[in-house]
Amino acid sequence: MSDSKKDSIHTKLLQQHTEAKVVRKIVLTVFISLIIIFSGVIGGGYLYIKSALKPVNPKNTDPVMVEIPIGSSVSSIAGILEDNGLIKNKHIFKYYVKFKSESGFQAGEYQLNQAMDFQEMIDLMKTGKVSENVTFQITIPEGRQLSEIAALIAKSAPYSEKEVLNKLQDKKFIDYLKKKYPDTLTNEIDKKHIKYALEGYLYPATYPFYEKKPSLEDIIEPMVQQTNKMVLNYLPKIEEKKMNVHQFLTMASLIEEEATEKADRDKISSVFYNRIEEGMPLQTDPTVLYALGEHKDRVLYDDLEVDSLYNTYKNTGLPPGPIANAGESSFAAALEPENTDFLYFLATRKGEVIFTKTLKEHNKEKAKHITKQNK
C-alpha cells in the first residue's frame, strides 16, 4: 500500500473518531438536559400536587353551600367542588379519591368551606348529613386567653363557664387530642409549670354549630384542629428556625399580646429575638399580667415582683408556654422577624409603637409618651 493511500485512510479514521466524539458529546448533552428538564418537571409536579392537596384557604371558614345531585360520579363531584372554589384541582381530587378507595358519596346539600381539606369534605359527603341552619356560632377573637375563651363558649353554648373550663383541663380529653394531633400537641404542654395545657392551641376564628347541644368535645376540637392545620402549614419554617411547635406558639402569643392595630409585628418579633440573643429578659408586661391572672391597664412596679416562670422580668428566655391564642399575622411574625438592632419598644396611648436601640433612648421616649401623660 502506498504512503499516500495510508495517509488518506489515517485521515478518514481521524475524522470518524472526531465525529464520533462530537456525536457522543451531543448525545451526552441532550441526555443531561433531558434529565434536568425531567427532574424539574417531576419536582414542579410534586410541589403542585402537594399544594393542591392542601385547603384552598386555611383561614377562610365562611360557609359555601354545594348540592350533590343523586347519582353524581366522582368526576362530577370534583367539578362541583372546583367550581365553588373549594378545591384547587378536580383531577387531583379524583386521583385522591381513587388512591384512598373512597366511595359511598351521598346526594344532598352540604355546607363546606375553603379551610377544609379533601378528607374532611369526603367524610362529610359520605355521611349524608346534609347542612342545617346554624343553631349558634362562637367567635374567638385574636389574643384571647383560654379563660376568656371559656367565657365566650359559655355565652353561646348551653354550658356553664365552669363546665367549659373543666373540659379544657380534662386530662383524658387532652390525651385524646394529643394522639389525634401529635405534630401540634406534644408533651411540652404537660410540663409542670404550664398554667393551661391548651392555652395557645385554640385558633381564633368563627365556628358554626348545627346542633342545639353539641358535646363540649365537639365544640372545642375544631379550634384545636384549626390550629393544627395552621401549624402544619408553618412546620417547615418552624423546623428551619430550630424551634419546636410549643416555642413557636409561645413566641406568637407574646407578639399577639404586645401588638396594637397599628403595630409592626415583625419589628416586635425582632426585639424579642434580639433580646434572647443578647441574654436579656424579654420584659413584656402581658406575661406579668398572665402570671397574676389579672387584666389591668397598667403594670405597677410591685407587679413585676410576682414569683412565676411566666414573669419575663425575672426570667430570661420564653415563658413556659403561650399566654394567649394568636392569629396568623403573629404566627408569620414569629417566624420572620424583621432584621433590626432594636432592643426596646413602647406602645403609646394612641396605639403607635416606638422602637429604640438603647435604654437611654427608650427612657426618653417613655418620659415623653407615658410618664408625661400619667401626670
UniProtKB/TrEMBL annotation:
Reactions catalysed according to its record: a peptidoglycan chain = a peptidoglycan chain with N-acetyl-1,6-anhydromuramyl-[peptide] at the reducing end + a peptidoglycan chain with N-acetylglucosamine at the non-reducing end
InterPro entries reported for this sequence: MLTG-like
GO cellular component: plasma membrane
Subcellular locations according to the entry: Cell membrane
Membrane topology reported for the UniProt record: Single-pass membrane protein
Broad EC category: lyase
Pfam families, per database record: YceG (PF02618)
EC number: 4.2.2.29
Residues the UniProt record annotates as site (Important for catalytic activity): 258
GO biological process, one term: peptidoglycan biosynthetic process
GO molecular function: lytic endotransglycosylase activity
NCBIfam families referenced in this protein's UniProt entry, alphabetically: endolytic transglycosylase MltG (TIGR00247)
Name of the protein: Endolytic murein transglycosylase
